[in-house]
Batch of 2 targets.
Target 1
Amino acid sequence: MNHTSPPIQPTPDVTNQDKTKSWFYSDIVKDHFFEPRNFLKKDPEPGQFNGIGTYGSPACGDEMRVWIKVDPKTEKIIDFKWRTFGCGSAIAATSMISVIATENGGKTLEEARKIRPQEVIDRLGGLPARKFHCSVLCDKALRNAINDYYRRVGFFDKIVSEGNRMIDKIMKVTDEDIEKAVREGAKTLEEVQEKTKVGVNNSSVLPAVEELIRFYKEKYFNS
């Protein structure tokens, strides 16, 4: 008499301590975690990239940092490097978005802005529901890098603010831009202005800028 063995059930990649919930990482996620594409171990040389974007904070969890090199003639992303402090999903998501942005000769900045978290998740073969935010973080970091490029080349009308408080409407500088500058080491108004150009054409915003600098210095550096 032949007996048919029951199908082997896959072992969850992650299981809660109470054993009530578990989830799986796709082979694509694992591949991008163990062999991340376009990962940058050390900060690049000055001038190597013309757009830098960050999102999140290592003080409270995942932080994404991306560097993009944009061809000024075509506005295509011809290089994309990144570094992520976070979980496996965060690393895999940032690795994948770097591939999406540069494949087939590179996306234009307009096309890259249209990359959405669901596209990253689909290309990864899915992510656990509680890890969807990782694809949102890398998506926002890329769009911040695009804004940074436009700021560097003076195309302020192309900067897109996404739900942040606008501090300087002329230079399109948000509270998040000021927070980013302080996290990167700008401690004085002059240093923040050098990074963001906030208030250079509108001195009326400077008191608000100085207040934000004090707030973020205390938040991140207790100073």
Target 2
Amino acid sequence: MNKREREAYLTRRAIEMRAFERALYARGVRFIAGVDEVGRGPLAGPVAAAAVVLPPDFSVLGVDDSKKLSEKRREELDELIRAEALACGLAFIDNRTIDEINILEATKLAMRGAVEEAARVLAAASATIEHVLVDALHIPGLDLPQTALIKGDARSVSVAAASIVAKVARDRQMRAYHRIYPAYAFDKNKGYGTKAHIAGIAAEGLCPLHRRSFCRAFGEVSLGRTEE
């Protein structure tokens, strides 16, 4: 695919990805928050969620499900999204809370926190979120109309933007944790159960970032030196 074909493809894809937003705009809805999460599957670290409110004339091409993009491209798009977005909200729920309430409830809690943060940012401009597009889930305790979209991060530009913002933010956090707990290669695996991560657990035990409820397969693994 040459450059011209690539640009044509991205333009078509952008039009497809705006279908849900266009339908809401046609009904008079002005401020739409796309919401997505990242980090439901790792053995360590938080689950993160982002809520992004884009302007109707959002012009960045290439916004898509974050899993389809390279790390470099996600970083580039994160900067562009934040520059054009009307509001962005982020929320992290830590591993201890995940163990206490389970990952699904922690994900919903993160999503609600992200929407509430985006709403506070938007309120500074005297505007209010009027509809929420969510990847797959219904967010409880949110007094706003919302639509759950299966595979929303590949179907809605707002949800895709949120998936990128959440992924970039969580990856940066895990790279920062790597500097504290280098044995587990968090800079590479971001907390997922890779061979290097499992080897780190075998050598050092669990660190304070590990989700005990996710690590039961390792049996009674003691806390490592990192918590002494």
